[in-house]
Design brief:
The complex is a heterodimer of chains A (237) and B (448). Chain A is α/β, with parallel strands linked by helices and 237 residues long. Chain A has six helices and 14 strands. Classes of the chains: A alpha/beta (237), B alpha/beta (448).
Chain lengths: 237, 448
């Protein structure tokens, strides 16, 4: 039995992020596991210790701030879950909640969950958007995805991903966090669908005897995207 | 000095427009070059009393087209910017080309489609009297960020002297009217077929755009469009001056304010809203309501959103949808599932428009493809370069796998569709990929 907590499912799902939980549920069942997904949002009580996996996706900035104001009530619980090695995935702009704090575009200073030393400043004039190809520690395969943000992460030590190529105006060379079994990455939307290797990693952390399964459509979709983006890169150079 | 400046600017724009037309070039160029020499020239132009601007995510072009027809039908001379030239340069081209050399606009009405992100730049120089905001949806987020980001940009284009004309049923668009007096709302009353639950994959009306507390809906017309109220700050749907008092999207008619019945050449719910917006503007502009009804009755859009297709003698319909815009796809899906004759549906996601420099397919997970799991749908054909991304998505729709066909090659997918001549089919794809479906049709250029 694997219990999933899908945090802020109705608030932090900006660009198909729901796909991550939908595929993960299926992949875990394919491994022979029973799966329960609890969808909890602002106004709910959270018992983080009850879950094997915690996920949060991307949201509009004000939505993310509303989520943070709720999640900050569980600062100690989050710290405990992180330190005990619970599998946690925060994607899009949600991992920005895990640092020291967020300076919002309106000038508000929001306290962060304090699991990491970075801090975030946000503005409302310019967005950084684009497709990216990158590499992450512990993965041979290329990561592919889409970043859409208006924030800057400062003092990010030991990032999760190196950004190799961008189509768009993303200035970053690195992105995300990974320590213990917590992953944070700015890729937006259904990144577990688009990066089958990353989905395999999350599944293998959650099940005892992981057996590899080839998902043909996902694999071919991934190959198409890599090939299209690589040729696009050439067109845009 | 000012007179000479205006004279030169108008002359320059007119000359460039003439030259651009000879060369078959775009309609933004004359304004662009004129603005380079005279950046604030729009401040010095004598505009007519009626300057009407339209912005929003979906339906701008259709709404503008209908407003133009209905105002013209009411005897008003309208200067309007052409589709796609909706940034400051295009607006300048339209206005300066319509001026006398002394800088007075000749038309009775200036009607402007405005890009959501650019309106704040354009309206630094002049203010439209009426500012229509149709809706704010997830739309090309690779370019637009997200709906609240766009709303913040639009907010910077709004001034106190404008009268806002807002879609009351869209909480984010209507929020521009919050604590404001000069607002005219349009929207739909409680209609037959409304839902009390929102079963869409996402609901952008879940949280109040003013205070981010949960909102409650009495009913939904579609997606997050409906009647809402916030239990925390009291923000709620406002009463409408122009209302769809009844609508039947099967028979294809709407009734406005309980007395004006308009038949629709195209039956989608968004067409009901666009028609209502056009009617609303016509009344603000003083057009006789019966004239407005007459012009809008059975009005055929010329923008190519819906076109007839024939494959191997089989009759079908192209429903061109907005790229990276899940609500646009949701509404196309509604049209296909409403066809009781039982249809095949082909979805094409091919080499996505280079205009947006992206191969992003995340938005496929925001579309309610689940609704194609319907007894009226016979087969779902997934085609194009991204057919496997589609195929993964469709594994989660509950549609029996034997009803789903996957073809990377669009001609091969069309061959499959040719195998049945009895039932209709629909092709749902984005505008950029529409040409690929049309080029394989045996009948060309028939707009519905």
């Amino acid at each position: 039995m694997i219990r999933i907590l899908y945090l802020y499912h109705d608030l932090m799902t900006l660009y198909g992020d729901n796909g991550n939980i939908r595929v993960l549920e299926k992949y875990l069942r394919d491994q022979g596991e029973e799966v329960i997904v609890d969808r909890k949002t602002v106004g709910y009580t959270l018992d983080l210790a009850d879950y094997d996996f915690i996920y949060c996706g991307c949201g509009m900035e004000r939505s993310r701030n509303a989520a943070l104001k709720h999640l900050i009530n569980y600062k100690q619980d989050m710290k405990k879950a992180f330190e005990e090695g619970k599998v946690i995935l925060f994607t899009g702009n949600s991992w920005q909640m895990l640092g020291k704090g967020i300076q919002t575009a309106d000038g508000e200073k929001l306290e962060g969950l304090g699991l990491f030393e970075f801090d975030v400043t946000e503005q409302s004039e310019k967005r950084y958007v684009g497709d990216v190809l990158g590499h992450a520690r512990g993965f041979e395969e290329t990561f592919v995805g889409f970043i859409n943000r208006c924030s800057t992460v400062n003092n990010l030590d030991d990032p999760f991903m190196t950004i190799d190529k961008v189509i768009g105006n993303i200035p970053d060379k690195t992105d995300g966090i990974h320590r213990n079994n917590l992953f944070g990455v700015s890729l937006n939307g259904p990144l577990l669908v688009k990066n089958p290797h990353f989905a395999r990693k999350i599944v293998s952390l959650l099940v005892k005897d992981y057996k590899p399964i080839d998902y043909e459509n996902e694999r071919r979709g991934y190959e198409t995207t890599i090939s299209e983006l690589s040729s696009d890169m050439e067109k845009h150079v | 000095m000012k007179k000479i400046k205006v004279f030169l600017a108008v002359l320059m724009c007119r000359t460039l427009r003439f030259a651009a037309r000879l060369l078959g070039r775009g309609s933004s160029l004359p304004g662009k070059w004129t603005l380079k020499l005279f950046p604030d020239i729009l401040k010095d132009i004598q505009l007519p009393d009626l300057v009407i601007a339209v912005t929003g995510s979906n339906g701008k072009t259709s709404t503008i087209e209908m407003i133009n027809r209905v105002l013209s039908g009411g005897g008003l001379k309208v200067a309007v910017n052409r589709e796609g030239s909706n940034q400051t340069e295009g607006v300048a081209t339209t206005i300066l080309s319509d001026c006398t050399l002394s800088g007075k606009v000749k038309s009775d009405v200036v009607l402007l489609e405005n890009d959501e992100q650019w309106a704040r730049h354009t309206f630094r120089y002049f203010h439209p009297k009426y500012y229509v905001i149709t809706n704010l949806y997830r739309d090309q987020m690779t370019r637009n960020g997200h709906p609240e980001w766009i709303a913040d940009k639009i907010a910077k284009s709004i001034y106190d002297d404008m009268t806002l004309v807002l879609n009351a049923d869209d909480p984010l668009s209507a929020s521009f009217g919050y604590n404001r007096n000069n607002v005219i709302y349009f929207g739909a009353d409680h209609l037959e077929g409304d839902k009390t639950e929102n079963n869409s994959i996402y609901n952008d009306g879940n949280y109040c755009p003013i205070c981010k507390h949960p909102m409650k809906y009495d009913y939904y017309h579609y997606n997050h469009i409906g009647s809402y109220h916030c239990g925390n700050c009291g923000y709620k749907r406002q009463d409408t001056a122009y209302s769809l008092s009844a609508a039947d999207t099967n028979e294809g008619w709407i009734e406005i304010n309980g007395k004006y019945r308009i038949h629709l050449a195209f039956k989608g719910i968004y067409h009901c809203y666009n028609t209502l917006a056009a009617f609303t503007v016509s009344q603000i502009a003083g057009v006789d309501p019966q004239t407005a009804v007459k012009v809008l009755d059975n009005y055929n859009m010329t923008n190519g959103r819906v076109q007839r297709l024939v494959y191997g003698g089989r009759e079908g319909t192209l429903l061109a949808s907005k790229h990276e815009n899940s609500i646009s796809y949701d509404r196309s899906i509604d049209v296909a599932t409403a066809d009781e004759k039982g249809a095949d549906v082909m979805i094409i996601v091919d080499a996505i428009s280079r205009k947006y420099f992206t191969s992003e397919t995340s938005w496929l997970w925001d579309i309610d493809f689940e609704n194609l799991n319907n007894e009226n749908i016979r087969h779902v054909v997934l085609a194009g370069r991204y057919c496997y991304d589609l195929a993964v998505r469709f594994e989660y729709t509950g549609i029996p796998q034997e009803k789903i066909k996957v073809y990377e090659s669009i001609p091969e997918a069309v061959e499959f569709l040719k195998g049945d001549r009895e039932h209709p089919f629909y092709v749902i794809t984005c505008f950029a990929d529409s040409g690929k479906a049309l080029s394989l049709s045996e009948v060309k250029g028939v707009r519905l």
